[in-house]
Write a structure and sequence with these properties.
By secondary structure, this protein is of the alpha/beta class. It contains 29 helices and eight strands. It has four domains: 120 residues, no CATH class; 133 residues, 3-Layer(aba) Sandwich (Rossmann fold), CATH 3.40.50.10610; 113 residues, Tetratricopeptide repeat domain (Serine Threonine Protein Phosphatase 5, Tetratricopeptide repeat, Alpha Horseshoe); 235 residues, Alpha Horseshoe (Serine Threonine Protein Phosphatase 5, Tetratricopeptide repeat). Strands 3, 4, 5, 6, 7 and 8 form a six-stranded mixed β-sheet that branches. The protein has a two-stranded antiparallel sheet with strand order 1-2. The chain is globular. The chain starts with a helix and ends in a 10-residue tail after the last helix.
Length: 649
């Protein structure tokens, strides 16, 4: 008997084939499941080694032993005639009719399907080049140096965000992990990143020691680590070197322009740098008092270094926020624009200055220049969280709902602990495409997560009131009373409630009690009517004199348009004022401009200001045009499988 026949007789080939099929299936499952459960890399290697070592053992076992009804026994050297006869009968069966062979084929098919499709179904959706820079531990003796260590965290984050290939979690989200007891895997899961950079800072006099290590959190593997013990004057060189080493470790493309930006020192004055970092910390709180603290610190930094471009960009941001979030006059936007221009004169490639300039124009209702400058910021720094978020907001203003949604989602990806701006705009988008429940969920989650943002309450309140959802509108008022409780603003919100109930005498009384805020004609970049709109309409509906307030509104709005304001909001407001003057032809003209500029919320046209246009053909054609434009956006959402409902409304 030949060796081949003997191997067949002892079923060595069959055992080898079966072992190979089972091993292949195990390899596929290990590759898919181990990363999901965050098993270390060595566990996968251990399983592979064990299976490979088991292969020759299985072959030896199959040569020596044979499986029989009585169990495993040593294989006879010579087969009996009866066994030969049975074997011959079995051999005469076609391959595909042998049950054991069919099991082998089925195993191969399963393994192939797992290898081809299993990975895509079960693997984590984490970006292979995603990273979070955790707050560096402050090992300095002085608590004041905490701003210094936080500044290093932010600078490295911003440097990495300039690398186009990388997804870098923003400072806002990572600062919540300062002093955390969570392990690296937990943090990576919560932030949705593959890599974590952690480190420490120790400042001793004029020297600084920085230690950093890059970890592949999914595989619990150290990728890079280094320590730097240098003079404080070398701080920016250290930050640049860390950023470059990490980008290289993640195999990200570093262009010459990006390298130039990373290696550029923002200032030579370390004290000015520390003041700037403190100012950015206050600015990021987005409250009126913190914004004023930021302005003072930016100014102090500029006293120490008059060429500190980033501090001028910070001032531009803060001055713009005075108008957007507080009751400062629009004239402050001129100061903001001047600060941004000074920053750009010092550094024409400064993303922060372009972003700030975009914010200033947005507050001025000039959407074209706002988006133009913001886009320049994104060209310089593609991962700049605030610029990404603002791009989404600007696109929403233009009525490009799906494109806006994509940028807002990208902003949330960069900053999982997202601010109310992104969420508020997503509320509007989902409301417009008919996702009522999703929109309402976002509204109350936004207030829960950011209870101190005043503008959110007004936006959500008027949204509910225009839809005649008085129950939810009352909830918003109560939440504002509970979380903030400013009596004048509370009076104004109750006035809005009465206005939409058409109780104009009550709304007028409450408006007067709210004080100066009721006479504000500015719109601050939000798709809505101004505060003074409701005042003048309440006066008109209750047959009170409104000419002076109307003239103030006409004068203000005309001046904004002449200065370049071109948002849907400014044209909508001007149209409503022209209706009060009975100049319906021009009112329709500016209403058409509003729709062309991005007006997509038809409930705004149900306001009492347009009551005399209800039967006008041009007006009703505009309503139909809005419906068509919104339905086009709905279709885009359905094509991208984002919309939840099955039918268009």
């Amino acid at each position: 008997m030949s060796l081949i026949e003997e191997l067949k007789r002892r079923k060595v080939f069959r055992v080898a084939a079966s072992y190979a099929v089972v091993a292949f299936i195990i390899f596929q499952l290990v590759e898919i499941l181990f990363p999901i459960f965050n098993f270390p890399q060595w566990t996968q290697q251990f399983v592979v080694i064990i299976i490979l070592l088991g292969f020759p053992i299985a072959l030896i076992f199959s040569w020596v032993f044979d499986k029989t009804p009585e169990g495993f026994i040593k294989t006879d050297a010579v087969k009996s005639k009866e066994k030969k006869k049975n074997e011959k009968a079995t051999a005469s069966k076609p391959f595909y009719l042998d049950g054991k062979n069919l099991y082998l084929l089925l195993g191969l098919v399963i393994a192939f399907l797992l290898g081809s499709f299993g990975g895509g179904s079960f693997q984590s959706s984490v970006d292979d080049k995603s990273i979070a820079v955790l707050p560096f531990d402050n090992f300095s003796k002085s608590d004041d140096d905490q701003f210094f260590s936080d500044g290093i965290t932010e600078d490295i984050t911003m440097n990495l965000a300039k690398v186009k290939d990388l997804t870098v979690i923003s400072r806002t989200s990572v600062m919540g992990y300062k002093g955390t007891t969570k392990n690296i895997k937990q943090i990576s899961d919560e932030l949705g990143v593959k890599y974590i950079l952690e480190g420490s800072v120790r400042k001793l006099g004029d020297r600084v020691r920085i230690v950093g290590q890059l970890i592949d959190a999914r595989q619990d593997k150290h990728i890079w680590s280094d320590s730097y013990d240098r003079e404080m004057s070398d701080l920016f060189l250290i930050q640049a070197d860390v950023s470059e080493k990490i980008a290289q470790a993640l195999e990200a493309e570093l262009s010459d322009n990006t390298l130039t930006q990373i290696n550029e020192a923002p200032t030579q004055n370390i004290d000015a740098y520390m003041l700037y970092q403190r100012a950015r910390n206050y600015y990021g709180m987005y409250t009126a008092s913190a914004n004023e603290s930021a302005i003072s610190l930016f100014k102090e930094a500029l006293k120490l270094d008059k060429t500190y471009a980033l501090s001028y960009a910070g001032l531009a941001d803060s001055y713009a926020q005075r108008v957007i979030r507080s009751d400062f006059k629009v004239a402050w936007l001129d100061s903001a624009l001047n600060a941004a221009n000074i920053a750009l004169k010092m550094n024409s490639n400064l993303a922060e200055a372009f972003k700030a300039k975009g914010l200033v124009y947005f507050a001025s209702n000039n959407i074209d220049l706002a988006e133009l400058n913001n886009d320049k910021a994104l060209e310089i720094n593609p991962g700049y969280y605030q610029a990404v978020a603002n791009k989404g907001i600007f696109l929403n203003q233009r009525g490009q709902l799906l494109d806006s949604y994509k940028y807002l989602q990208k902003a949330i990806r960069i900053n999982p602990i997202s601010t109310s701006n992104e969420m508020s705009n997503l509320v509007t988008i989902f409301k417009l495409i008919g996702e009522e429940k999703k929109s309402n969920d976002y509204i109350f989650n936004t207030i829960k997560n950011s209870p101190n943002v005043v503008s959110s309450y007004r936006r959500f309140l008027t949204m509910f009131l225009r839809s005649e959802d008085f129950s939810n509108a009352k909830k918003i008022i109560n939440l504002y009373k509970e979380n903030i409780g400013d009596s004048k603003i509370l009076n104004f919100y109750n006035a809005l409630y009465s206005y939409h109930e058409k109780n104009f005498s009550k709304s007028l009384a409450l408006i007067k009690e709210s004080g100066e805020i009721s006479k504000d004609w500015s719109m601050r970049g939000v798709t809505n009517f101004s505060n003074a709109h409701y005042y003048v309409q309440s006066l008109a509906q209750s047959k009170n004199s409104y000419k002076q307030l109307l003239n103030d509104g006409i004068k203000y709005t005309q001046s904004r348009i002449l200065d370049g304001a071109n948002t849907a909001t400014i044209f909508l407001q001007y149209s409503a004022l022209l209706c009060l003057q009975s100049d319906f032809d021009n009112a329709l003209k500016f209403l058409e401009k509003s729709v062309q500029s991005g007006l997509r919320d038809r409930t705004l046209l149900e306001d009492l200001a347009f009551e005399k246009l209800r039967n006008n053909d041009r007006f009703n054609m505009l309503l139909e045009e809005i419906d068509v434009l919104v339905n086009k956006e709905k279709l885009k959402f359905k094509e991208n499988k984002i919309i939840l409902s099955d039918e268009l409304n």
